[in-house]
Amino acid sequence: MRLDILTVFPDMFDSPLAEGVVGRAITRKLVDVNCLDIRRFASNTHSSVDDYPFGGGGGMILQPGPIFDAVDSLKKDSGFDKSTPIILLSPQGKKFDQCKAEELARHKRVVLICGRYDGVDERVINHLVTEEISIGDYVLSGGELAAMVIIDSLVRLQDDVLGSAESIKDDSHTSGLLQFPQYTRPAVFRGWSVPKVLLSGNHKEIKKYRNKQSIKRTLERRPDLLEGIDTDQLG
Ligand SMILES: C[S@@+](CC[C@H](N)C(=O)[O-])C[C@H]1O[C@@H](n2cnc3c(N)ncnc32)[C@H](O)[C@@H]1O
Fold first, then answer.
1. pTM
2. Is 16 within 8 Å of 148 (Cβ atoms)?
3. I need a labelling partner for 36 at 20 to 30 A (CA). Which of 14, 48, 100, 128 fits?
């Protein structure tokens, strides 16, 4: 998979793209992440890509020209086609979730446009992007952190990125439930013991226990995830 990020702050991605699961996936060439500085496409000598809003108002707006030109430069690559999602990170977009992550992870290529200041010119939304995505109902100063969230969630879904396919299957939200509680050594810590069944070696019983815990936890913490679902069918 290849991810293209359009941003005015490409340096913000240095550390998140170098560390952990994402860093390893890039080093192993399982994914390719390309940060494109929108300022490279500025048409003035100061490399400015924002301007005052027509009609007045406080903040600056990212101009359409540099963003359209940056995406046009990507369209020249062979891997780009009509199905390539061109996503604008926006607090006005559809809320990101695991289902969306799985859908996007199936694409060979995804473009992420990071807004800044008071946002982007509306013509970018109307005539360039295929969808707007929000990572939650709050306002960030820019789309970069939101893009990092999306990148991380897509990269870990790529084949061979995580050590064991099992760890994805049991993740919260993957099966529609929250994950069961997990424990590691020591078996007794400050007097608190690990549930006996987990030490039993009885895989059938462990599976049953974990499934029950997942349902219990989801009902307690996120009953909205189970709306319309007969929980007896899950157990
Ligand atoms: C300060 S925000 C602009 C918000 C805009 N004035 C509004 O009210 O919709 C600047 C940029 O941060 C990004 N951003 C802010 N909050 C976000 C969120 N919840 N999800 C995704 N991107 C967000 C967007 O790219 C946005 O263009």
1. 0.96
2. yes
3. 100
One pLDDT digit (tens) per residue for the chain, 235 residues: 999 999 999 999 999 999 999 999 999 999 999 999 999 999 999 999 999 999 999 899 999 999 999 999 999 988 899 999 999 999 999 999 999 999 999 999 999 999 999 999 999 999 999 999 999 999 999 999 999 999 999 999 999 999 876 678 889 999 899 999 999 999 999 999 999 999 999 999 999 999 999 999 999 999 999 998 887 777 6
Identify the domain containing residue 14 by its residue range. 2-155
Structure tokens at 13: 């991605």
Q: Ligand 1 pocket test: which of 139, 141, 148, 149 has the largest number of ligand atoms within 8 Å of its C-beta? A: 139
Ligand 1 centre distance from Cα of residue 89 (Å): 7
Give yes or no for a contact between 217 and 181, defined as CB atoms under 8 angstroms apart. Answer: yes
**Å from CA of 128 to ligand 1 middle:** 17
The count of structural domains within the chain is 2
Q: How far is CA 113 from CA 3, 26, 55, 162, in A?
A: 11, 20, 25, 26
All residues at 6 or more sequence positions from 227 whose CB lies less than 8 Å from its CB, including other chains: none
CA–CA gap between residue 72 and residue 80 (Å, rounded): 10
> Of 96, 125, 155, which residue constitutes the final position of a domain?
155
Q: Are 148 and 195 members of one domain? A: no
